[in-house]
Amino acid sequence: MEHHGVTFIECNGPGAHAHLAALRRRLRERGVPARLLRSREEASLHLLLIEGDIAADEDTLRDCRRWRFEDAPAANGEARG
Fold first, then answer.
1. What was the pLDDT predicted at 22?
2. pTM for the complete prediction?
3. Distances in Å between the alpha carbon of 74 and those of 46, 52, 67, 77, 78?
4. How far apart are CA 31 and CA 20, in angstroms?
């Protein structure tokens, strides 16, 4: 069974946008789709949405939180996706 996952990296603070924008550039150079999002409620809160499960070192995650999600199993014959 194939699993599709996404990774969210959440950063907050004055350097959050620049930090995640630089990470997005590095990912795109490697052909990894990524979107940089900004919170509507908190101007300094940013989220990088990455297709797939990326390896991240301590420098990449400094002052950030990483969330990894995968497709939930289908329930009672329901189609996945």
1. 93
2. 0.78
3. 31, 20, 21, 6, 5
4. 16
